Amino acid sequence: MVLPDQDVAIVHDYLNQRGGAERVVLEMTRMWPKSPVYTSLYRPESTFPEFTSHEVRTSVLDRMPVDRRFRALLPAYPLAFRSLGVLGTPLVISSSSGWAHSVRTAPGTTHVVYCYAPARWLYETDRYVPSRARRAALGPLLGSLRRWDREAAGRADAYIAISANVRDRIRTAYGIEAEIVYPPVDTRSFRVGPRGGRLLVVSRLLRYKRIDLVVEAASRLGMGLDVVGTGPMLSQLQSAAGPKTVFHGTVDDETLRELIEGCRTLCFPGSEDFGIVPVEANAAGKPVVAYAARGACETVEDGVTGVLFEQQSVEAVMDAIRAADDLPTEPAKIARHAERFSVDAFRSNFRAALESALTDSS
Predict the structure, then answer these.
(1) Quick one: which of 88, 92, 151, 198 is 20 to 30 A from 32 by CA?
(2) Do residues 70 and 46 lie in contact, with contact meaning Cβ atoms separated by under 8 Å?
């Protein structure tokens, strides 16, 4: 089934970051180039520039002068998505990790949620909200927001999960059975080559990402390390870094591709729902060192395309980096493994899941 642009509306939480979810939305806009994207707020200078050539419709929240502190406005997001009105296209696709799934749709519309995870700050508050003061402030709101969230999830016609671990969490949070469609990774844009000499981290610099483990491990091993990304942990990480660590901040896609193609090993020390960057590193023939949790267990083949470590400690990261150096897998074989997460695979599997949802709701 080929759905015309006028039959599809795309909804996303917020367009003010350059993350994996925003890359997925970009791919959706390539599949339906004339379909509008609805979102709570849009900051062209903070997200991928390709969105400027697409129609983006925003909520009342977009008028507020916020960008980096957008998460502090969480009580306002239910109202923001309500202000978008009732969407009446035959198919509405919500790209959601907490808000977009609540958009209202007309009778006869099929609403499919492509879910990165049930709202982490609602269901894993201790992990994703480290500040006691913020958790205390959230406390009185959590019960009502969880009820709102579950009611919103129940109105959708179908859920699609980005990974098996997210599928399980959707089942726990909402009692909904979701199909799995892995996110698209532009595997063909990477050249396969021999390993370089420096470690690489690509991540938002947030506490739960555990970039501190790699920074200290690289320093103790005396290895070069490139860190791509920004965030509140930057100054702390810079203070702990050794002389061979370089912080690049935000880089363009070409520079990022060059860093991935030239790295020794990609380090992925946090617990993520999927993780596009490890697949990109594999597509370039580079091994991945990753914490053995959630998405990494689905994308990294331990002992073949990378090394998984069981404990989030500096010593475990150091041991995994050494083990990755000894992997015998040829770069071309590592790259072939990444193809199951390609853009073509996503398009085919995503369309099939949408067709199934449309059939079931008709």
Answers:
(1) 151
(2) no
